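pasting for ref
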Amino acid sequence: MTDPQTPLGLAVIGTGFGCITHVPAFRDAGFDVRVLIGRDRERTAARAKRFDIPHAATSLSEAMELTQIDAVTVATPPHTHADLVIEAVGLGLHVVCEKPFAADLSQARTMLDAAERAGVVHQVGTEFRYATPQALLAREVAAGSIGTPKLGTFLLHLPMFAAEGAEAPDWWTDGASGGGWLGAQGTHMIDQIRYTLGEFETVSAGLPVVADRGQTAEDSFTVHFRTVTGVDGVLQSTVGAWGPLMMTTRVAGTSGTLWFEGQTLRHADATGERDVPVPDDLISPAPVPPPFDLFSTTYDWLHASGIDRAPYTRLADAFRRRILGEPIGTDEPRPATFADGVAGQAVMDAIRLSATEGRSVQVANPT
């Protein structure tokens, strides 16, 4: 049995986002980050030293020989997730896996089955379930503050990659690597919709490339969806279009509307508009920017504000408590497990099929 007084030993797999966000967030949550795992030994050793991580390794088996590990986080490109996750759970390690979860639904189901057979705690890195406005929106919808939800609008236009020479990781631009902007950003939006409004029933989608750099993956997406709970909605995002930032999340119901465009959730009904007060348990600390010497590409600068750290710390804290057998409060966001990864992957596969065949697609039953 794990001693709750002894910090859990963690291995972080991935020297990019793994160092920028996972290392500080899991430390904030009480984990002891004991080893950093990366493909390049020299880079991994340098990053481990930079973040005061005692050990560096190029494989999980090497890491296990160096130190005691209870859990791992997988912060690598999506096409590498399945092998790393299956190896980790086979060793009895608890796992947090980044999104996009898998290459396809079949692979996602294999990962879930392996984790369930191993009896380990498993979660997906959809940290924005814990971001204050999203968590508060989900709580307000569940409490019935807008009646029955009927319409959802989820928009994000971010002109980060419109300019010639903007640098993105290979898994964002290579269609065979399981990413694209749908994988990078759409997975967060899909998780928010599933968690707040219910499972997807049908999708009709397009995956255009606005700023064509010869990539084989989309830099934009538009999805018209319907949930099993009867909500019609649109989610759209691009990183390839010039213009100002445009961001809104809006849910309309039979008796009111909730929306946010920044950190403040607003409510409107027949009596007027008002800010929704943030309860103490959903107040997060101010963002802490990572060290700027880590940033070299346009992709790196997406994380420059440090907005991931506070919600990721809450995700990591839930992971720690689940490992220790401690309860998750009924009012706090429910951790996204590999079962959520499978359900989200079913939506992703349906969106890609819809865009390819130009038709509405029924989302597969994730089970």
